[in-house]
């Protein structure tokens, strides 16, 4: 592991959907909230951003998605939709799309990005398949993170994709669909981020594999953390006695605010 005094090279993660006001927007802000909790100021070492293939440029997050995000523990304040540009893909170490069509759109812009572009659910599934065969945390932060992405790409030929890789657009649908989409994004994104966080020199994550599994299990059940789930390590940010983990954000909507109840 690198010297704690060294400054890690940031890792760039790009989320892509269509309008950049629902799915990828929720993922960006939920992911940033998680990174800030587990890494404190060092959460900025994961440069998590989003864009849309046909973005509603300059628009705020959809109000229903913003409400869902709040229930998951994120904040939509100041969010502005952006159009996907080739340079964004070029600069990203990992591109996560919400559907297979978005993945095709990304590769249409930058074909050589294939080895670092996945649907969000595809990446989460490949991560589970890797198990203990994930790269270690030797070297600068960006180096093992890129090795992790390369391992995902190497595992992809053995996997069959399908409709289940897509997270559908909730635009024009009732609030319940925004809730389902927010939960689906959280269940897929947070374990991937947890695996990246585990490679950071400031991380206090005891076992990224177990934690990622706990995140998915808790999101699927819609209940509190499993009794046997690994507990978070000590916080890095001053003034915190315990480091929150991604399971908090998978408490389904309403842990902090019950969506639709007015509370």
UniProtKB/TrEMBL annotation:
Bias-annotated ranges (Basic and acidic residues): 209-218
Keywords tagged on the record: Hydrolase, Protein phosphatase
Residues annotated as catalytic: 17 (nucleophile), 23
UniProt GO MF annotations: protein tyrosine phosphatase activity
Pfam families associated with the record: LMWPc (PF01451)
Domain Phosphotyrosine protein phosphatase I, chain residue ranges per copy: 11-195
Superkingdom: Bacteria
Signal sequence extent: none
Gene3D superfamilies xref list: 3.40.50.2300
Chain positions covered by the region annotation Disordered: 209-263
Biased composition (Basic residues): 254-263
Family named by the database record: Belongs to the low molecular weight phosphotyrosine protein phosphatase family.
PANTHER family: LOW MOLECULAR WEIGHT PROTEIN TYROSINE PHOSPHATASE, LOW MOLECULAR WEIGHT PROTEIN-TYROSINE-PHOSPHATASE ETP-RELATED
Listed name of the protein: Protein-tyrosine phosphatase
């Amino acid at each position: 592991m690198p010297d704690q005094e060294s400054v890690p090279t940031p890792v760039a993660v790009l989320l892509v959907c269509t309008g950049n006001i629902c799915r990828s927007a929720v993922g960006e802000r939920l992911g940033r909230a998680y990174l800030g909790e587990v890494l404190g100021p060092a959460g900025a070492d994961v440069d998590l951003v989003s864009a849309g293939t046909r973005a509603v440029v300059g628009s705020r997050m959809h109000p229903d998605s913003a409400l869902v995000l709040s229930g998951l523990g994120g904040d939509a304040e100041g969010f502005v939709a952006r159009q996907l540009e080739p340079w964004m893909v070029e600069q990203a170490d990992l591109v996560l799309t919400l559907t297979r069509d978005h993945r095709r759109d990304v590769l249409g812009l930058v074909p050589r990005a294939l080895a670092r572009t996945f649907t969000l659910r595809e990446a989460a599934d490949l991560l589970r398949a890797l198990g203990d065969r994930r790269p270690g945390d030797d070297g600068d932060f960006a180096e093992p993170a890129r090795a992790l992405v390369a391992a995902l790409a190497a595992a992809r030929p053995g996997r069959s994709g399908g409709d289940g890789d897509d997270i559908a657009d909730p635009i024009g649908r009732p609030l319940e669909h925004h809730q389902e989409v927010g939960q689906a994004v959280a269940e897929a994104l947070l374990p991937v981020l947890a695996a990246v966080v585990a490679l950071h020199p400031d991380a206090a994550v005891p076992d990224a594999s177990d934690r990622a599994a706990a995140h998915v299990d808790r999101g699927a059940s819609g209940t509190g953390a499993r009794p046997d789930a690994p507990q978070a390590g000590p916080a890095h940010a001053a003034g915190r006695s315990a480091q929150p983990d991604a399971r908090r954000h998978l408490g389904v909507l309403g842990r902090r605010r019950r969506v639709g109840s007015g509370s």
